[in-house]
Structure formats: C-alpha cells, structure tokens
Amino acid sequence: MIKMLRKKKDVYCHHASEYEIQFFDVDSMNIMWHGHYVKYLEMARCAFLDEIHYTYDVMKEKGYGWPIVQLNLKYVKPALFRQKIRVELSLVEYETCIRIDYIIRDIATNEKLTAGSTTQVAVEIKSGEMQLQTPPCWRSAVENHPTFQRETA
To answer: Tell me, what CATH number does 90's domain have?
Structure first.
C-alpha cells in the first residue's frame, strides 16, 4: 500500500483576536448565523494588517486592490450569543498571494468551533491586472512582523 505524504504547511506569521458574539449576529436560536463567521475572519485579518502596518488604506496607496478569490469554511460547532471567541490566524502564503488559515475557538474551553481559509490576490488598480507575485511592499511588511518565520509548522 502506498502512503501519501503531505507536506506540512509553512506558517509565516501568527495573530489572534478575541471577540464576543453579538446579538445582531445570531438567529432566533441564539446561534451565530453561518454568514457572519466571515465577518469575524475579516475583523481578525484587519487586526493582523494593522499589526504589520499594511492596512487596506496602505494597499490602495501603493496601487493595489486585494480581492478575495477563495473562501473556505468548515463549521464544527456553533458559536452562541455572548460566547467569547478567539480567531487564530496563520499566514501560510505571502509571496504569490495572501493565504490565511483560521481557527475560531471558544475562549473558555479552547474548543474548535470553525476552521477556514481565505486567499487574496494583488490586482494593480490602474491596469486591473492580477499580479503573479505580491508586491515587494507587502512582502516587506510581512517579513518585518515580529512573528515572521520561514520554518515549516
């Protein structure tokens, strides 16, 4: 029998953000509506971008848009009204695109609630052309982050 070997992912940076599930994000059963999980990923991603000083405003100033081209979510256990969660973010690709893996956990129990990933590509605003490599200004911001490492996770 041939056993498939999976290469471990490179993890270049880590970040974690904490939130409380708000009333406007839940349904009548006090369960967070599935579409709102994306908002919490976005909030954590924005917090990470703030941390590396490469916010969406900076991206625009540098002449690039960064659309999401892929989003994946796996719901493991529902998040509930007033539950305190931690969104753990791992940057797993930054040279050709921005690929981030996420885990949403219950803060009290550390139990995994959701796993997901997003992929963003650089698009030059003037030409509208997708870039095959991320701009040097993005790579520099990532490489200067205190958690940056080139080791395999």
So the answer is: 3.10.129.10
Residue 101: inside a domain: yes
Domain containing 83 equals 13-143
CA angle (109 as vertex; 40, 9 as ends), nearest 5: 60
Q: Which of 110, 144, 123 is nearest to 13 (CA)?
A: 144
pLDDT single digits (tens) 83-128: 999 999 999 999 999 999 999 999 999 999 999 999 999 999 999 9
Domain tally, the chain: 1
Q: Please check whether residue 148 lies inside any domain of the structure.
A: no
Q: What pLDDT, on the 0 to 100 scale, is given for residue 88? A: 98
What are the φ and ψ backbone dihedral angles of 58, each rounded to 5 degrees? -65, -40
On whether residue 116 sits in a domain, the answer given is yes
Record the pTM.
0.90
